[in-house]
Structures
1.
Amino acid sequence: MNGSESDDLDHLFSETVRETMDGSVYGAWRSIRDAEAVPLSFGFPYPESFPNGELVSAAESLFEYEGDRALQYGGGEYADTLPEVIAEQARDRGIDCTTAQIHLTNGATNAIDTVCQTFLDPGDAVFVEAPTFMGALRLFRNYDVDVEGCEMDTEGLDVAALADELAAREAAGAALPKLLYTVPNFHNPTGVTLSADRRRRLCELAETYDFLVLEDDPYGQLRYEGAEPPPIRALDDAGRVIRANTFSKTIAPGVRTGWIIAEESFVEQFDRINAGGEPSYTRGLIARYAEDGRLDRAIEELRAGYSERRDRMLESLAERMPPGTWWSEPEGGFFVWVEFPEGVDAEAMLPAAIDEGVTYLPGSFFYADDGGTRNARLSFSHASPAEIDEGIAALATAVRAETPALEADD
Ligand SMILES: Cc1ncc(COP(=O)(O)O)c(C=O)c1O
């Protein structure tokens, strides 16, 4: 059957799919992906960071030790130990955590989806940072909820503005959020980190206004400088913070393994809702790989590789970008957020930038509503340091071509 015939079956899609399927953003995403240019667009790890050889050895020793149990339903002993590996990591970061408070997922995306399935009804209000992770926005759209963007600044979510908004909503009898989704460390897309004081205040607001906080922290262990604020979950006395995490950035996205840390009563529901899809072999493999401090050593190496790339991007931006350009200076993670000079539309400029030899993601992709027209997310995670420099040079050329008046003043 060819494509045009299958279009006739569109009426069989659910109402939510029919309402969201046009996906213009996805079309733009495609063209960026296919471009032959320095990829500063995607938050992919750089390929040499993958522990191919180590995973092969871990697989061999897993089969040696477990035999056929490694591939059986439920997996062998190593699969069972993964929650303890995760709980130990969490305790090291100040989170009081038992294995009964852990639900394993197929990555952080699946963790967010599981939280949505468990808590959200159509019409619920969900607060997100503006801008926020595109993947989360896409998931929230599937649940027919009202997504509301909250202001941010260089210290992350503007919690004082959030407090005002909540008070105003309460006074007006308007809907309060059921869930607030945040990426507190090296935020995607802006790279900024939520300050410790704001984390505390956020927990208080969740308590006062009766909502849950979903703390999505894929980048927290990839810190290249500065002190780490406590995870929001570590500051939560009321059980309202649900923490999502993943091995996508510390091992590889292809292992598709993540987890949720939350109250035991929540975990019981996550387990019930998601039963049957566990990739137990992969879980055993990760537990075997992580043994003897190997994962910690790998994270140290990743920090070196990424911080070199970040430094190169920041140096290159400082050297090459025209006046009137601002960018964030992340202490970790994968992303730098750029604000171009007045008059530049990042989405409109993208084809010219691709012709010059660089791709980026326009800021507008990261907003539930309008916003980010002058912004772009640049990822330093995938390209080599030399390519990053080349990409920023191409970007600077594209921006200068858009701002001839500024050049005249320069
Ligand atoms: C904030 C955030 N959450 C979740 C994900 C996806 O993680 P996973 O690959 O584990 O689904 C990403 C990765 O791009 C991310 O930046």
2.
Amino acid sequence: MDAKEFCERYAVERKGTNSLKWDALKDRFGDPDLLAAWVADMEFKAPEAVLDALQQRIAHGVFGYSYVPDSFYEAFIKWEKEHHGYTVEKEWIRFSTGVVTALYWFVNAFTKIGDAVILLTPVYYPFHNAVKDNGRKLVTCELVNENGNYHIDFDAFEKSIIDNDVKLFIQCSPHNPVGRVWTEKELKTILSICKKHDVLVVSDEIHQDLVMEGHQHIPSAIVGGGAFAHNLITVTAPSKTFNLAGLLTSQIIIENDQLRTQFDNYVKTVNQTEVNILGLTAAEAAYRHGQQWLDGLLSVIEHNYNHVKRHLNEQAPNILISPLEGTYLIWLDLRNVIDANQTKEFIQDRCRIAVDFGEWFGEESKGFIRLNMATEPRFVELAVENILSNLEDFAVVGKSSE
Ligand SMILES: Cc1ncc(COP(=O)(O)O)c(C=O)c1O
């Protein structure tokens, strides 16, 4: 399915449907009329198979306590095996009502107050919150940014671990917001460093299925033939892949028996809920029948990304666009064209776009923005048009106010 057909079939108006992205603009940005290009969900309906499965479930009319059916495990295990080469056993799987919730649990289950937790920044801001909100010490190691191309400084990472006696690394793979899909070599190096210093790794692989052509997501659990799986917890979900975030269903994979027991013992102190039957129903249908829909979605993301690249490269080449290898979130460095302190004034007040601002992901990223490509091309075209048409005028304003 190409991008045009996908949009014709699945694009839908979300304003006025209690969507965080569109209906919370006033609350979150102080302005209800912005073009919403922030939070990571989409203007697309879920695959038909998901809607059919949910409708059938709703027609049954009973929403009592639920139990995870074997068919769910089968569908998820098959997906992981076929798409990512990861053989997951049913006994290793646990559930949470969201990946971020799970991150908070991991921090509490596996570290003590005051322990150091390391992140590679810039990174998805709830990672920072999960560390800080729980009274742990946040240690950041900046990714190296070479004209928008990011890589890991392994020596700096190892030094930070040693200097701070780090206990836990929360990895983002693929990486939000810089769009990297880590190579096997990079993963092997970082996982080896963690193993050497006895640092537990939590790998957030929620974007595992959103990978552009020419790149391949490698689950950390299979790197080096599974050499690091003992020291690792993987968390993933169908929520980004199939636009199901509101159904609050995510999977945790813990191979190591001892870590799993420690996790279970912690979770029973904070969570006594059963699974969300609608979330599970949707997830199973998506894993079973969502492939064609996902292929269509990936062509929309690619189409939108190419549009941004083409127009900005031609008309504003000083805006740096990080290569999108994975996720559907593009990372733009505006610092060559506007004063970083005026990013909000430019993007929000002038261009009328709601974005995730760079500094949300780490202090070093002021002057960057993250834009969501999983939307209708007309929204992306409008965002690009607004940026380009205001740029010259604003850059002059910026200069005259210096
Ligand atoms: C890396 C990463 N982890 C977690 C989440 C959110 O997951 P959840 O909605 O399941 O808490 C996102 C959402 O964008 C994300 O990018």
